[in-house]
Amino acid sequence: MPDRNVGGKVTKVDNPAANASGRSPRPAAPPLTERQRERRRRILHATARLACRGGFEAVQMREVAESSQVALGTLYRYFPSKVHLLVATMHDQLEQLHGTLRKSPPAGETAADRVAQTLMRAFGALQREPRLAEAMARALTFADRSVSPEVDQVSRQTTAIILDAMGGLENPTPEQLSAVRVIEHTWLSTLITWLSGRASLAQVRVDIGTVCRLIDLTDAGVRVQTPRPGPVGSG
Amino acid sequence: MPDRNVGGKVTKVDNPAANASGRSPRPAAPPLTERQRERRRRILHATARLACRGGFEAVQMREVAESSQVALGTLYRYFPSKVHLLVATMHDQLEQLHGTLRKSPPAGETAADRVAQTLMRAFGALQREPRLAEAMARALTFADRSVSPEVDQVSRQTTAIILDAMGGLENPTPEQLSAVRVIEHTWLSTLITWLSGRASLAQVRVDIGTVCRLIDLTDAGVRVQTPRPGPVGSG
DNA sequence: CGTTAATCTAGAACAAGTTTCAGACTTGAT
DNA sequence: ATCAAGTCTGAAACTTGTTCTAGATTAACG
């Protein structure tokens, strides 16, 4: 009679992603049948739809369940909390965004320019559905330890996007990684600040530009780990 | 029969800080009697105590009310939501912290050094009560528009702390202000990331150091709006 | 003092996230 | 086809943030 958690089957009792202790790389990837993938898709779609309407608070679990034709218990089996659900939605959206961005790489001179351009483009994409963005961003920063794995996944996605914009270097130095982390933090924070009306778009643009200078800083003067001649400007 | 909101009395209907429209600098500062100040103090104290125990989720409104010997309705009159309550708590704590920091100014060579040192000191202070820090930080980033005035207040406090560390300059350039904002974002984000176990203390230190370089960057090589000969390096 | 508006209290009521349960349905292996 | 294990459903229950109400207290003012 096990129950709970679609993404990690254990014969006895299973705890979804609540690996509060630390390690344990999630038992195994459970195949997930066709119907199940379909359900999951419906849920994420309904979530995005509701979020577009009224943001974080409009995403109500009962509504999501009904709207995606799934029982409440099932919804909770797929996503153990509202925050998990919205972080998964963000992952989904970022996936699409990353795809879009890949198709038309930024055209700036310096790495900093390209990153800034990419981030502003991402910003523009989210801006198009501000309530959805609000819902996802708030979930992301409100997430507690029980959502760490999922949040980390989103973080890695963002990192990938930024590294891509920098020129797809494969062996970033620790300094560069630190700069990328700072840029990530700034990006998300400015997004939230803008969404809650505490900063203007102009301010966002300036701040993104400011933080991106960190790239030039680490690009040049620092001892690089591996100066391999990767394809920096092409794609 | 007016009711609701201790901090802004209007004869007819009063809305606390829910100035969603934008302006309106909060009708007037209502004197606030002795008993009331005492109640407010009790509430904030109880909040901090509960938060120290179990973080955000341990701060339960009924508990806070009971623990501070105040009716639930009264608690809500003083702080219109749990988030308001915790943001106010953060303001309170930052006040104390700022006082402490003022007493022993940072001793670095460059402005960047001093800011980094100050931020790490602040980090250390919050680290001492990680659950309290978690509760406050999560409330701060989860806050929606209805809490904007209070969040802004906290933001101004943080800005003041950083500017102090830079040497108390009174006419920061737009570039410098942008750098300060980015530093603020980074500080809060790394705090949260550390609190939720997704980053090590070492990483935090590195990232704070990284972002603080932006200060040197704006300190020197950039075309400044007003090149007035202010005391930039002395403090 | 006595009046009157504002504030405070106790407690019920409501809303939305989360959990639980019994029973129906699927799936996979024999 | 059948059995066991795992999944899904519908509905109720529980938790905690938030709102509401009626009556008791307090404070300012004459």
From TrEMBL, chains A, B:
Residues 37-97 form the HTH tetR-type domain. SUPFAM superfamilies: Homeodomain-like. Keywords: DNA-binding. Residues 1-37 are annotated as: Disordered. Residues 16-26 have a biased composition (Low complexity). InterPro entries: Homeodomain-like_sf, HTH-type_TetR-like_transc_reg, HTH_TetR, KstR_C. Residues 60-79 bind DNA. It comes from the Bacteria. This is TetR family transcriptional regulator. It comes from Streptomyces marokkonensis.
